[in-house]
Amino acid sequence: MMRIGHGYDAHVFAAGRPLVLGGVIIPHDQGLKAHSDGDAVIHALCDALLGAAGLGDIGRHFPDTDNSYSNIDSRILLRRVRSMLAAQSLAIVNADVTILAQAPKMAPHIEAMRATLAADMGIEPHAINVKASTTEGMGFVGRKEGIAVHAVALLTDA
Ligand code: MG
User: Fold this and answer.
1) 36-84, pLDDT tens digit by residue?
2) What would the mean pLDDT of 10-30 be, rounded to a whole number?
3) Average pLDDT in the 3-8 region?
4) What is the whole-number distance in angstroms between the Cα of residue 69 and the centre of ligand 1?
């Protein structure tokens, strides 16, 4: 059986933090405000994977009221989601991520994100696609107030 899932996340920019997306530190003058490291790519991806598995969402498994997740490296969360899928005998077929950001430019970092995410998910880089778009200046993304990310993932029986 095949199972599809969707995930979405958005975070507001905040000064004095590194910008971490897809497990990669991206040079920028601000990062994303969050209880964790603010990696909206990994958060959306985790929600897509958990959604496909019928396992709820990231907030249910890693609540921001739990201080053990304070400033946590989101790659740890992604690896935990991978373990949850394995425990359900589910394998990742592929995943596709769309980053919505007016700035900074994502293109130079896409391949590093793919390699990092693939390693944490235990899949080949060709099975994880990452792309980015601006919103041509419209909305909170266009005003450079924050970054939004959509993700879809397909699972199959392992
Ligand atoms: Mg988040």
Assistant:
1) 899 999 999 999 999 999 999 999 999 888 888 888 999 999 999 999 9
2) 97
3) 98
4) 12
CA distances to 144, 152, 155 from 139, in Å: 9, 23, 33
Residue 131 CA from chain centroid, whole number:
12
Residue of 37, 57, 61 lying closest to 48 (CA atoms): 57
Q: Which of 89, 76, 98 is nearest to 153 (CA)?
A: 98
DSSP per-residue codes, 99-135: EE-SSS--GGGHHHHHHHHHHHHTS-GGGEEEEEE--
Q: How far apart, in whole angstroms, are the C-alpha atoms of residue 145 and residue 102?
A: 9
Ligand 1 centroid–CA 26 distance in Å is 17
CA 9 to centroid of ligand 1, rounded, Å: 5
